[in-house]
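Hi team,

Filling in the usual template for the complex we talked about on Friday. All components are listed, including any nucleic acid strands or ligand strings, so the model treats them as one assembly.

SUBMITTER: L.P.
PURPOSE: interface mapping
COMPONENTS: two
RESIDUES: 430
SEQUENCES:
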Amino acid sequence: MVVKVYGPLCASTKRVLLVLIEKGIEFETVNVDVSKGEHRQPEFLKLQPFGVVPVIQDGDYTLYESRAIMRYYAEKYNSQGVDLLGKTIEERGMVEQWLEVEAQNFHSHAYNLAIHILFAPIFGITPDPKVIEESEAKLDRVLTIYEERLSQSKYLAGDFFSLADMSHIPFIDYIVNNTGKKHLINKRKHVSGWWDDISNRASWKKVLELYRAPI
Amino acid sequence: MVVKVYGPLCASTKRVLLVLIEKGIEFETVNVDVSKGEHRQPEFLKLQPFGVVPVIQDGDYTLYESRAIMRYYAEKYNSQGVDLLGKTIEERGMVEQWLEVEAQNFHSHAYNLAIHILFAPIFGITPDPKVIEESEAKLDRVLTIYEERLSQSKYLAGDFFSLADMSHIPFIDYIVNNTGKKHLINKRKHVSGWWDDISNRASWKKVLELYRAPI
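RESULT (copied from the run log):
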């Protein structure tokens, strides 16, 4: 059964694509043009009532929320492809901790920078310089903690690549390559080394090759 | 080894306490007075560099982020006490989906209501009527989707109680009992039935008996 992935051009969906590629799971994609509001159409809301991508359909199983889908495939295909959850319950705990840090401490600031610098024209939003300034300052503080963490271990959850690292890739890519804020990464020795490592994975190169957003 | 839980009076920590009690895991608590800024003191930042509760220490294993700790204990003691993750990988996927919905769609609005209505005086914040109005409107829309979901299944992830339901309890308790917004729950047949069910669990009664916040 080929997994159907909705909204491949969106950053959050790219988290899911990374897992599918790392695990060698066959998939096909269905475009959802959020600039045209297709994520708010009745047909899409039947799949995802909150009106956001991604959603996957795998036979008659439908699942949404990018980090939930990542966990689902990492667990379902635990012994296939790259291990993304750690080998012990304690390692999995650290993966979960840093996945939550990404979701709770990193994401909203990175998202604000992407929306207000990069996507404002596309979505007809007026960029707010105060939001940009505050988000950059908050992200800077978060990345100071990442620098300390990554001076102790090669990856966020320990000395193994995991969902926790992977979950950061799509939005750090915007920060480094599309928002003029790459100094946030580059000025930090361990964070920039980590970014060089994870952004050079074949899976991310394939995602960009196939599903680069039209920006 | 007795689990040490930091910050038991805070709502997010109560997610962790619920799991420990449901699983019958022995624990002790360490107060962290956030109204006095104890979560920003160097000693605490060594445990949790982002300066938020909860944190647990379990022997020499330290873990933070409430939903990560919930998953860790639910998995580690999978066959002890109440099953909180579902019985299959597909059920676990639905638990993860609704845990993410709680974190991404529900929490920030419920948190804003609690902060601006309930905790503003304690933390010296000026309540913002616009934030309160917008948060209530957004929460109302989210709960409309919950009502639809709970008309199809007894609990969020399916016909079984799970971490996804549990994760909502501390903040819905504020909404119903401390913010004057209980109509958001009570006007909905299935959401209010669900709330009656999950808030009457012995675990939640014990949490309130032992660690009710001084508000």
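MY TAKE: Chain A has two domains: 3-83+205-211, 89-201. The two ends of chain A are 33 Å apart (CA to CA).

Thanks, L.
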